[in-house]
Amino acid sequence: MKLIYLVSVVILSSCSSFSWREFFTGDNNSEKRNKTLMKDFEVDQNLQKKFEVKEVEPANPAPEPEVKQPVPSVDEKKETETTNIKTQEPVRTVERPKPVPRKLVKQPEVKENQKVESKTKVIVKSPQEINYPDEFPQRLKDFDKDSAKYWGDFKPTLYTGEKTVLNITYMGINTGKITISTKSPSMIGKEPVYHLHARVKTSSYYSYLYEVDDYCDSLVRQSDFLPRKFSLIQRESGQNIDDLQLFDLESFKTISLYKRETKKKTKKKKKMKPVPRYFQDPLSIVYFIRGLPMEKEATYRIPVSNQGDVEEFTVKTGKKDTISTEIGEYEAYLLEIETKAKGKTIKGGQMKFWYSADSKKIFLKFEAEIKIGSIKGEIESYEP
């Protein structure tokens, strides 16, 4: 499962001296890479257009800069010449122009820490009210039955421009950083979506052994926080991976495109699998957990779709802890998480997440089990 992968990707699964030299610098331009991948898999153009991402223009654009007119100086003299009627001699008069008053332009109000909230109330349907496709898996219907009990309690908790950086340590060694951020909202078709982003980068010490620079993007529908598009672009010393997942919510299916390149070979996989009515993707789950009521004791069984597989993600809330971090001491909600996901580096098991016990619910810390030991992450910086 790529959520746990994002947490533990910096751990060496193998060493390699081969270098692609294609690591990211600045903007990863994931949308461009996704289009290239879809063309590589010969995805229908109508489907490509259906999942095309467009940026949303700001609701209150910055005012046009005022063009200042030249203001005459009060010392500037204006001479005029007239004729005396009686003597017929020219008469010169000097007129000092009145200063032109300057217009005062009111500056737009700047609101800091502006919270992004869904304006549409999430409408939760029971499995009996949902029109499932024929031969839809009963297991996924059971997920929806559980989700219907709590999905309406979820409230989006995220801020445009927010960025959290966590230091990753393995066996006491700083192996890299994870940056999780919220970009400006976008559109997929006519649907407004939140844009969630994460980046995993190995530290300079580990880069000598195995370099990792991975980008992950999740686009979730604002009306109900359901994923519409998930992208993972991995650029590592021994491999290049492009992983794109398109969630067709109307037909209850996901289209998974996976391409892995190494020095020796290229592997491509395309899947079309069913998804439940309510689910999350490997990145949006971090934000979905954040939006749950953490103060009360409860257990949430959350389905996470990844590469066509739907895994169970169990979250237990209701505990508090006090932790000291680089950005200060916090009273925090302690969440106990269990997953059954398995992979080459990951094993299913226990994880712990800490979120600040305030309205922001900042992601402060995590601990996770891997096949060899455990991995930890702790917040280094936070920008609201």
Describe the overall structure.
The chain is mainly beta. The protein has one domain. The chain has six helices and 19 strands. It has helices at 2-8, 30-40, 45-50, 138-150, 204-207, 284-290, and strands at residues 53-55, 78-83, 90-95, 115-116, 158-159, 163-170, 173-188, 191-202, 212-221, 227-236, 240-248, 253-261, 266-274, 298-306, 309-325, 328-339, 346-356, 363-370, 374-383. The chain has a 15-stranded antiparallel sheet that branches. The protein has a two-stranded antiparallel ribbon with strand order 2-3. It has a two-stranded antiparallel ribbon with strand order 4-5. A hairpin with a 6-residue loop joins strand 16 (328-339) and strand 17 (346-356). The longest helix has 13 residues, at 138-150. The radius of gyration is 28 Å and the shape is globular. The chain starts with a helix and ends with a strand. Mean pLDDT is 79; it is low at 8-27, 71-77, 99-113 and 343-347.
